[in-house]
Protein: Aminotransferase
Organism: Microbacterium terregens
Amino acid sequence: MAMSERAVRAKSSVDRVTAFFSRIQAVAQDPDAMDFTFGNPHEMALAGLTGAMAAQLAPRTVDWYAYKTNERPAQEAVAAGLTDELGLDFQPEDIAMTQGAFGAIALALTLVADAGTEVVIPVPGWFCYEPMLHAANLVPVAAALDPSDFSLDVDAIARAISPRTRLVIVNSPSNPTGRVFPRETWVELAVVLEAASRTHGHRIWLLSDEPYRRIRFDGIGFDSPAASYPWTMIDYSYGKVLLAPGQRLGYLALSPLLPTTERDELREAFMPTQLAIGWGFPNALMQYSVPALEDVSIDIPELTRKRDRLYGALDEAGYTLTRPEGTFYLWGRAPDGDAQAFCDALAVEGIHLMPGTIFDRPEHFRVSLTATMDTIERALPRLVAAAPGR
């Protein structure tokens, strides 16, 4: 076999996602398709995004498009934004600029997890955690969210930790459920991770996956575990709040509470490690644009209106749904508990949802709220007709 064992494992764990993605790419060419699958834009890009990039396009120096690592203005803008949002004293040196959250997660894995060690991941959770871990020669270990309300089950995480655990990944606001976890959860988790670190004789790190941090509803606040557990790293992607996932821009940030020795060690490791994993820096244009992009966002009130319209109509029709507190997804249980059959039947009528099989939850489905309001209104009669008991 030409492929490495880890490549085979990664491919196997992501095959169902790539097959679905290929199908949806074909769907995207149909102007009449009602696509609620991935969090892709369905309207023209934000003027704030295109304007920020256009302002930086013309070179101002001969090295404008030379190799870029972690550019200081971008780091300063991110550190200031994080300090304002989370109330912690982030410094520019705490920030590694990356190619989206993918790049930030890959960097975090390389920094703190050795080959063969275990990483605890939430289920249901983002479908790329598992293949990324396999590709890094790490072992994913699932910790189920509370099935009653999809809150973070700290006891489940505690049970998943073993002597080989090196990292725990959490995600809030959570994809696919839309839940936002409160500070009390992070305090409880910090106690568990500190105790487990002492028991097993090595530090267990926490990676807080926060790409939807700025997309929240109903005035719900946000607390990061970086304020409760010093050994926390934060990964972030601008692709969500800008609704431009094709422009790869993100960062990895160290908690300012991290002890000085470890904080300095990781700061110094950023650049050489990013080089070693394949020049893991955003391109020059995106880094120059960061200061202007810190204040750019999709229309949250309009997104709220879409959430309320879909959630209200489907809830009234009899679906069992989790009311999203953040992200741009709606998570529900399929009629008869067979999401694949449910999604396949709707696809015949031109309505495309994401089946929960992709999240290891075959009884659920996910709806992306990035579809237009017109698409939502066109799809609702059929979705209501397919409700349980209809």
In short: Residues 219 and 325 are 9 Å apart (CA to CA). The first strand starts at residue 34 and ends at 35. The radius of gyration is 21 Å.
